[in-house]
Amino acid sequence: MRPQANRWVMAAAVLCWIAAARLAGQGQTAAGAPPYAPADIAFGARLYAAQCSTCHAPTGDGVGGVDLRSGKFRNASTDQTLALVIQNGIPGTGMNGFRLTVGERDGIIAYLRNMNTFDPAAVKMGVAARGRAVVETKNCLRCHRIEGEGSRVGPDLSDIGAVRSAGSLQRSLVDPVSQMMPINRPVRAVTKDGRTITGRRLNEDTYTVQLIDDQERLLSLTKADLREYAVLTTSPMPSYKDLTADELADLIAYLLSLKG
Hints:
Elements (H helix, E strand, L loop, with lengths): L1 H30 L6 H14 L1 H4 L22 H10 L13 H12 L14 H10 L7 E2 L2 E2 L9 H4 L2 H9 L11 E6 L4 E9 L3 E6 L4 E5 L3 E6 L13 H12 L4
Antiparallel strand pairs: 1-2, 3-4, 3-7, 4-5, 5-6
């Protein structure tokens, strides 16, 4: 009976594996290719024109045997391997590696994946200088700091263009809650003597939490001394979905230019 029982167990395991594989395949089919934000594609198009078109041509077929518009690459079947090719190049060929920020790399990948359908005339290309003016008129420095100027209540944006993609920045501006980073979430604490403290979380462990309060003071609180402590799920940053398309494009272009 024991060998027969083992065979049943093995058969059940194989059936479960097959079912899981089919479900995974169905999920991939339903999900399709990963989405690429229009802002990332547009940013990538600008980078491609500046960094890649000299060899590959604006049409993507400037190198013999390579047609970037086809969306098929001999040395890169996934976005991860394509990122490695962009970063490291291809030894023994004229393809050199490029030192790009994460946002720049993701932008070029988004553009390459959509090169055959991208219409530059349909996309607003922002101007960084005008984006700086948007920062000033919308009083962004009342909460944020840029290159030594502004408040420390919100995250410092001096290097935001080196760590965030165009699409991520666009989502942050239109729907701030969707892009809240865990370490920068707003918190509310009430001490045992009834004092309420609000601020932006900088660090936290089992016993303490460090934050910067709304008066720009750095505080370290011991959780045992608190009556209440909560990490808030709403962002103090307002949505800028009412910006015009030109203003939004200009603001994103300016933020992308900030690389520390």
